[in-house]
Amino acid sequence: MSFELPFSDREHAASLLAERLSSLRGRRPLVLAIPRGAVPMGQIIAEALDGELDVVLVRKIPSAIDPELAVGAVDEHGKRELAPYFHRTRTSMEWVELQTREQLDLMQRRRASYGASRRPVDPAGRLVIVVDDGLATGSTMAAALRALRARQPARLVAAVPVAAPDAIELIAPLADEVVCLAAPMHFLAVSRHYDYFPQVSEEEVIAILRSQ
């Protein structure tokens, strides 16, 4: 079953994802949102499934030529995932190393602010649902899934409203299940598949996490 695009907004997309994931209600899933855009979505899904909300910190590594193009991603432990097309982007490994250090510094600051009043939830032995608001390359989600798999969840589910077909192909081997509402052949930027797609602020993310 595919859904008509565009979604109205993140709330609409999250509600549809929660419906698709409804069979997991009652198993107290751990919903891990990729900041910042997916955190309000994760809150909706966690509440609908009687689950628990936290974040998984992963950052894109931008191309040296086009900052909008992700050539990979890195998790907060320093594990890096380069995109399959990396060698075609004219991006040097020196640039990748520089960006990796910058993104790690940013994630350390975010973890400090997000976790000021709470410890990160341990995914070991849990049913884990990783949520993002869309996948263009899939590298960020792939990095998140690899990092979480190493922490031995009982089951690992990737859940997104919309994704490029190539991104789904990339992450499929890394999750026990991929739930994607729409994978258009002519994929545009994630934001183009929503009518309303504002930036989510750090303050909003912190407020949501501290309310849990």
UniProtKB/TrEMBL annotation:
One of its GO terms (molecular function) is glycosyltransferase activity. Keywords: Glycosyltransferase, Transferase. SUPFAM superfamilies: PRTase-like. The keyword Glycosyltransferase applies. Residues 12-173 form the Phosphoribosyltransferase domain. Transmembrane segments: none annotated. This is Putative phosphoribosyltransferase. It comes from Pseudoduganella violacea. The lineage of its organism: Bacteria, Pseudomonadati, Pseudomonadota, Betaproteobacteria, Burkholderiales.
